[in-house]
Amino acid sequence: MTQKDNIQKKVEEALNSLDGIQPATVQPFFYTRLQARLEQTKGVWENISSFISRPAMTLSTVCLVILLNLAVLYKNYSSSAKVSSADQTEQTLDNAYDVASNSNTTLYNIWSQDNDQRTQK
Description:
The protein has five helices and no strands. By secondary structure, it is an all-alpha fold. The protein is elongated, with a radius of gyration of 41 Å.
């Protein structure tokens, strides 16, 4: 029973020790000074990320990507139109001079023709 009384006494001592505790007080303008110190320690990556995350920067980047995509699409469309007109000109010249044309110059077409010849043998 003495051990139980001893435990109870220690619990009461621990609870009574909390009676004199006062809440911690903060010096005036502590949070302002803390915020200023945190701002001073920003690194390069934090500065870059804060610049990139601005809405104006994000919007301009998206517009730039869209414009680049449109430029590439326009270039591909115009080059395919030029190629088709060049093919038509080549075919017209071949027909005019009775020359056999070989328009299968891609690796895939050459490879598939070789395989067709091997399978026929």
